[in-house]
Amino acid sequence: MMTEVYNQEGKKTGQTRLPKEIFEIKLNSDLVHQVVVSQMANRRQRIAHTKERGEVHGGGRKPWAQKGTGRARVGSIRSPLWKGGGVTFGPRKEKVFKKKIPKKMRRKALLMVLSGKAKNNFLILLDKLKIAKPKTRQISEILNKLPCKTQSTLIVLPEVNRDLILAARNLPKIETIEAGNLNSLDLLSFKYLLMPNISLKVIKERFLKER
């Protein structure tokens, strides 16, 4: 598969052949769905947490005598039946949402998503991606000259580049990621995939040598 290569001015400078082992993989939507669901579950944060009757404040003594008052017998104000008491079967932080997926399945799904981006012309290759200073305006001007323009875009860097990360983090719908950390969930969260040519080499070394 051949694809166009752009420069930072948005002009086509040539074509490059994409590795068929990465960008010509037949889609299996069930596999991709399974992998994405597992990655979403693994990122899920356990925030909701309710207290049981043994954790709420108070209730150290019996509210009133067992007999003789005419009222129902009560052992503690921490009972779930009382306002301010413990919660029965409420959400707890101990719940585990993680799902394990074999490494080969994750890698296969990633290659399928990359192939889909290339086939649908949502992959944009640059001959290089450099800015003089970590300024949002500089990266914004580059993006506006490319087919992605203001649409959601994931910028794939060959390695950590502090200037590019700082410049892009204030732009809405724009995120950066290292090529070695690519995953199906992040790819599907953005419409366009933007990367310099050297990132292709990193992807090939990272995800094909593991076979």
Q: Write down the domain tally.
A: 2
CATH class bucket of the largest domain: Alpha Beta
> So how many helices?
7
The string of secondary-structure elements, in order, is EEHHHEHEHEHEH
CATH topology category name of the largest domain: Ribosomal Protein L4, Chain: A
Helix content: 25-40%
Our measurement of the CA-to-CA distance between the termini, rounded to an integer number of angstroms, reads 22 Å
According to CATH, the homologous superfamily of the largest domain is: Ribosomal protein L4/L1
Main sheet strand line-up: 2-1-3-6-4-5
Give the averaged pLDDT, no decimals. Answer: 93
> Which stretches are low in confidence, meaning pLDDT under 50 for 5 or more residues running?
none
Oligomer status: single chain
Q: What about the largest sheet? A: 6 strands, mixed
Strand content: 5-15%
According to DSSP, the number of beta strands is: 6
The general outline is: elongated
Compact description:
The protein is an alpha/beta fold.
Structure, explained:
The structure is a single chain. With 211 residues, the chain is an alpha/beta fold. It is 33% helix and 14% strand. The chain has helices at residues 20-23, 29-43, 103-119, 136-144, 162-168, 184-188, 197-208, and strands at residues 2-6, 12-17, 123-126, 153-157, 174-178, 192-196. It has a six-stranded mixed β-sheet. β4, α5 (162-168) and β5 (174-178) form a beta-alpha-beta unit. It starts with a strand and ends with a helix.
